[in-house]
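Technical note accompanying the year-one report. For the benefit of new consortium partners, we illustrate the data format agreed upon in the data management plan: each record pairs a sequence with a structure-token string. No post-processing was applied to the example shown here.
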Amino acid sequence: MGENVMMNEHSLVQVINTVPTPPEDLLPVSNSGTEVISPQEGWPPITESRKGSAVTAAFHLLSSGIGIQALLLPVALANLGWVWGMVCLVLAFAWQLYTKCLLVQLHEPGPGTADTFSLQFPKLGKLPTLFPILYLSGATCVMLINYGGGSMELLFRTLCGESSSITNRFTGAKCLIVFACLAIIGAQLPNLNSIAGVSLLRTITAITYCTLLWVLSITKGRPDGMSYSPPEMESEMVRVGNALNATGMIGLAFRGHNLVLEIQGTMPSNTKQPSQEPMWRGMIISCPIIAACLFPIAIAGYWAYGNPYGTMIPANGGLLSAFSEFHKQNNKKAVMVIIYLLILVNSLCSYQIYAMPIFDNLEFRYISKKKKPCPRWVRAATRVFFGVLTTFISSTVSFLGSLGPLSEGLHCQ
């Protein structure tokens, strides 16, 4: 009888050992590393497709790190001067690198874990982060609608002339609405991983027009009467306000790390190959390119035009306004058309990546209540609603442009 028991135990062990177990990379794990996570994490648009790579991460990081806000850097440098301006630029870039490193490690504090979004934490952790994240993404989309509509109007004026019927028909408000409709149509792409090509297009356009502007500004020479002397201010409070606004412009230019967690959420992750590895490679590719794009445009723009409060760089337009104003006589029409078109395409592509955290949060609310994936018509309706809301804000809040550099810079940092 004892021999029969031993034989049965031996057979049972053999049966257990022959049961196939799924590989570890197919088992999503929770924060404890042992439990299977809820399938709801695969339904929102950011984590819906986790097929990203180091290349797509580099595209997204470059797309979020280089943009139209870089054209304000010469204005910031003119307010702060050569010494303090360069110090602030270096510190801002170093701070961006530091925060990116922290966020990459925060996403996966341990192998196989994924702390992706603070908005999906319990209420105690959600409330302090809800406002700055939504404000940053929403306000950026509002500013992009303003930039895109303005560049579309300038494109029509340059192509058709100031007195053309087309120019008179497409005023600033109409161009803004047309741009917003194009942005809403482009926002229907399903998830963050699906807009990797859009991020690549945005990166190419941003690097192209930034390089064109600072190279042409140097080659065409400095205007007469250019000065580097500090501007005369009405009072000390005005000087302090301009300095704070300049630091906000620098912070706005060196943004992009606010999307690091979202970008890393598109990476495949398991205990053997955490998503930190492709994310680190993407950062190694993107950070030198960002620095090589932002530093020359700040230095060359200030060198070429100097003080913004005299007759040089317009404080509200940045390097683009200065270049088009002081070199419009010897500029070819095709050059300005290309620059305006690049900025228009860049603004359209930027809207997609900066709006994705808003889309993810809206769909996560629906998923939490309905316990099922968001239908296509609900996804489309929420994105149209957000597009209409940002268009309304951009067309009604006229003072948003003057508050943008300081407030957005503070939220980015």
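Partners are asked to follow this layout when depositing records. Residues 74 and 298 are 5 Å apart (CA to CA).
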